[in-house]
Design a protein that fits this description.
29% of the residues lie in helices and 25% in strands. With 164 residues, it is α+β, with helices and mostly antiparallel strands.
Length: 164
């Protein structure tokens, strides 16, 4: 994969904090999930659960993208519904974007908005891995290869990790 920075996006988290990705995660390896439809949540969860199994001490962010500016007037209601369905300890890590996201979508080369996408982002904001849809065995293997040496590793290749 050609080195590409994760595009800057400003959101407000469910806890009410302003979040600018990737700026606010500089110095950390993180997984960022992007979804445009509620039905993509299971897709994101499949990747995020695997990442947290491999790198339990690293942060995971979710970015629901609601592209119609019409829904912005209902953002308090929508975010309230999300807050009630998401554990409070995750509220700092979920930020919804309301309105035009075409530059963000183009920068990430997202073609299918009915899928969930995940991006493994390094300490400098560069994308080191991307996944789409539900995780499969190939996706697990590719993610494992990418996280080696990037995070505190708690997975199956303990010998590689202990050598570091």
């Amino acid at each position: 994969m050609k080195e590409k920075r994760f595009p800057k996006i400003k959101v407000k988290t469910l806890s009410g904090k302003d979040l600018v990705l990737p700026d606010d995660t500089k110095g950390k390896v993180v997984l960022i999930g992007v979804a445009f439809v509620r039905e993509a949540q299971g897709m994101l969860d499949s990747w995020m659960d695997h990442f947290q199994h491999l790198c339990s001490e690293n942060e995971v962010y979710e970015l629901p993208i609601i592209e119609s500016s019409f829904w912005k007037i209902f953002s308090g209601f929508i975010d309230g519904g999300m807050r009630s369905g998401i554990p409070q300890e995750k509220h700092d890590f979920v930020g919804t974007h309301y309105g035009d996201a075409s530059e963000f979508v183009d920068a990430l080369d997202i073609k299918e908005r009915d899928h969930g996408y995940v991006f493994l982002v390094d300490e400098e904001g560069y994308i080191r891995f991307r996944g789409k849809g539900y995780i499969d065995d190939e996706g697990k293997d590719k993610m494992l290869e990418r996280v080696k040496g990037m995070c505190t590793y708690h997975g199956m290749v303990a010998d590689d990790h202990q050598a570091r």
